Amino acid sequence: MGRENIRRPQKALSARFVESVTEAGKYFDGQGLFLRVAPNGAKQWVQRIVIRGKRCELGLGSPPAVELADARKLAVKNRGKAMLGGDPLAEKRAAQNKPLTFSECVDAYAEAKLSEFRSDKHRKQWRSAIERLAVPTLGNMPVQDIRTKDVLRMLEPHWRERTITAKKLRGQVEAILTWATVSGHREGDNPAAWRGNLKELLPAPGKVAKAQNHPSLALCDVSAWWNDIAQRDGMAARALEFVTLTAARSGEVRGMTWDEISIEPRDTTDTTDETRPKRVGLWTIPASRMKGGRAHRVPLTPEAVALLESLPTMNDSPYVFFAARGGMLSDMSLSAVMRRMQEAQVKAGAPGYLDPASKRPAVPHGLRSTFRQWAAERGYPRDMAEIALAHFIGSEVERAYQRSDMLDRRRDMMAAWGAFLRSETSPTDKVIRIA
Fold first, then answer.
1. Strands (DSSP E) along 276-352, which ranges?
2. In the structure, how many helices (H) and strands (E) does the chain have?
3. Which residues, in sequence order, are bridge partners of residue 262?
4. 101 with 141: CB under 8 angstroms?
């Protein structure tokens, strides 16, 4: 092996240099601290230090996780310890062999895996649930000492009162403990596993609490609700209209950008009435923004196109429905519009827009259920309605053979849905009288 390329700059290293250097070698700073750059570009902070008369090299981490300023502080601290007879190298080895606590495993797991989550919102939700419900019980325990009784003690207070949340929490803890086992921090069976373990100690989630559906809008209230939302100003109200017209999820609409939209060019030779635009469009949602991780095409009716063309735009904001400062609208902004609509109805002495089954006020996500009920009652094929909602259809084998997304047929269906919202009779609506 050839000797490493040693670089001794006339002045101390800079943060910019540390970030940009790519040539393999050693780059010295001071206090015995130097940056080692490997031929493959990997970087590591190393300190040459004399500990109890013996010359040693002590690893201090790697940039950018350990910045230049932090590496300098560590080097000074280690040098001080060595001068007073301490052994910073032995301390580091002892710390590396110390069993990890559950909280430390949570941090390590999050650093390794949370980048796989679809959005910051989901990452924050994951972390929040763990810190609120699991860390108070398991946080300070060495991960190798956690047993089934400990996981049970953590889950039991929540299992009956918030079953769905507790079920998700159990899966999260199982994933963290699996990571700890694979990483060598614990051995044995996973104490948070369900089958053959907690399943024998806790009632099945389905027997404890039934999942509640999002309150939807009754079909008989759709027209009145649609007229009501049209009278309301604001970007959130327009986004809610678009959610309704497309039967899309709130997050898909709020995150929509202009480069996902394509609209048919206007036909300048058309001399028909121009008071209502007749152009159609296509919205292609990338897989990275879809719940199922698969790209989804949404046909845009003339009414949806007209809504988009009526919207203002903001420089430097890619979003179609943007917030006041150009960012993405919050989920609560759409919910707030529906809540204000309901409050206005109640104030006027009317019952408002209530779910026909639960009698709870309708929410934005419930509009998808309203669309699905309408499609079923109008006799549209089940698969076509489910594709419109971006649901998976059939088994993996069936999906491998059924690759059509029925775009043209769904365009006609969404046009009929728009006519229903406006209380109009659509040419595609067929009423069959059965004697």
1. 281-285, 296-300
2. 18, 8
3. 282
4. yes
What does the mean pLDDT of the chain come to?
Answer: 85
**Count of residues for the chain?**
435
Question: Measuring CA to CA, which residue among 424, 414, 84, 156 is closest to residue 282?
Answer: 414
- For 174-219, what is each residue's pLDDT tens digit? 999 998 888 788 888 999 999 999 999 888 877 765 556 789 999 9
Q: Where are the alpha helices (DSSP H) in 247-295?
A: 250-254
Q: Could you tell me the pLDDT band of residue 435, with boundaries at 50, 70 and 90?
A: very low
Cα–Cα dist 246/238, whole Å: 12
Q: Tens digit of pLDDT for each residue in 114-159?
A: 777 767 777 888 888 899 999 999 999 999 999 999 999 999 988 8
DSSP notation for 371-415:
HHHHHHHTT--HHHHHHHTT---S-HHHHHH-----HHHHHHHHH
Quote the longest CA-to-CA distance of the chain. Answer: 104
Alpha helices by DSSP H, 10-147: 15-20, 68-83, 88-97, 102-113, 120-129, 135-138
What would the two tokens of residue 20 be? 């940009």
Task: For residue 96, give both structure tokens.
Answer: 């590396």
CB atoms under 10 Å from CB of 60, counted, come to 19
Q: In what order do the strands lie in the sheet with 25-30?
A: 6-7, 25-30, 33-37, 43-51, 54-59
What is the pairing mode between strands 261-263 and 54-59?
Answer: unpaired
Outline where 185-272 has alpha helix (H).
205-208, 222-230, 235-246, 250-254
Beta carbons within 8 Å of 164's beta carbon, 6+ residues apart: 205, 209, 211
User: Which pLDDT score, from 0 to 100, does residue 434 have?
Assistant: 41
The first and second tokens of residue 242, run together, are 């678009």
Tens digits of residue pLDDT in 320-342? 999 988 889 988 899 999 999 99
pLDDT digits over 102-126, tens only? Answer: 998 998 888 877 777 767 777 888 8
User: Per-residue pLDDT for 433 more than 50?
Assistant: no
Both tokens of 324, joined, read 């006041």
- Domains in the chain (CATH in brackets) are 6-97 (3.30.160.390), 102-208 (1.10.150.130), 219-421 (1.10.443.10)
103, 150, 95: which is closest to 130 by C-alpha? 103
Q: Are 61 and 73 in contact (CB under 8 A)?
A: no
Q: Which residue has the tokens 């350990």?
A: 66
